[in-house]
Amino acid sequence: MTRVSVVVPTYNHARFIGDALRSVVAQTFGDWEAVVVNNFSTDDTVDVVQGIGDPRIRLVDFANHGIIAAGRNEGIRLATGDYVAFLDSDDAWHPGKLARCIAELDAGADLVCHAERWTGGGRPEREVRYGPAEMAAYRPLLLRQNCISTSATVVRRSVLERVGAFDPRPEFVTAEDYELWLRIARTGCDIRFVDEVLGEYRRHEGNASGAVLRHYRAERAVVEHHLAGATDVGFAARRRRIARTVYTAGRGFQAAGRRGAALRMFAGALARWPFEPRTWAALALLAVPGRTRIGG
Q1: Domain that holds residue 96
Q2: Coil, strand, or helix at residue 191?
Q3: How far apart, in Å, do the first and last CA atoms of the chain sit?
Q4: Are 223 and 255 in contact, with CB atoms under 8 Å apart?
């Protein structure tokens, strides 16, 4: 049996997927298979994948109808590995990624997430570290924010079989990963974080404001879905959590130069929870032309 299956959903990413798959081929840990789930791309994606020429890479066509969770689930269904790693087709890994994560899993972890370098999008590069582990327990993960990145995650396949894979409902699109991590955390799984940067997360230029709005709606749907079943979460905590989601959307609009949309979001966040200093700071920042970052 293969030790790790790498699930790579893709659609019209011919310009990126070659780098993604070559980063898998370059892993120092060689006992892997990659399942590329192609949503019937109309560019040169198939030629690029086939051109890699590694028999450990399987290419399957699967119509996900705009639901990336469905494509990832098809990859999970076809996986044969003890562990499942996720890699979006516009991201890439460093050569030691699998070896480092599998060492943690072999030592007893159920899910491992490592640090990444965020690149592209016309913005400065930065290193992002996820976690910490205490924030990945169910309650803080629900009441604060997602602290796990999909392309940086390797998880036991048995965990996915136990809790279920990604939820494909349309209202969760772009936040379906967060919803899965919540279900995994709710079972008390051992979630560990590696501070070492072992991958590259690629940001894109494009319809940034549209992406912000879509993700805001999806994250809010996930949060409200889980809050509906969290009978031990009080009224104030619920309002504060929704305010965090609205604030995050405001910051996204602010970074995209949509000052009016950002203002509306910050006002909405303060209406729900007026005791958050960073929301007031972000609101004040809107009055400073050309500034989008707090403290810089």
Answers
A1: 4-203
A2: strand
A3: 50
A4: no
What pTM value is reported for the model? 0.94
Give the residue among 197, 185, 178 at the shortest CA–CA distance from 135.
185
Q: pLDDT tens-digit profile of 102-124?
A: 999 999 999 999 999 999 888 88
Instruction: Please name every residue paired with 116 in a beta bridge, in sequence order, or none if there are none.
Output: 128
b/e 32-58 (16+ beta carbons within 10 angstroms → b): bbbbbbbbebeeebbebbeebeeeebe
Number of structural domains the chain divides into: 2
77 in the same domain as 12: yes
Q: How many CB atoms lie within 10 A of CB 112?
A: 26
Strand pairing class (153-156; 57-61): unpaired
- Contacts with 21 (C-beta within 8 Å, 6 or more apart), sequence order: 8, 34, 36, 49, 52, 54, 57
Q: Which residues pair with 85 in a beta bridge?
A: 6, 154
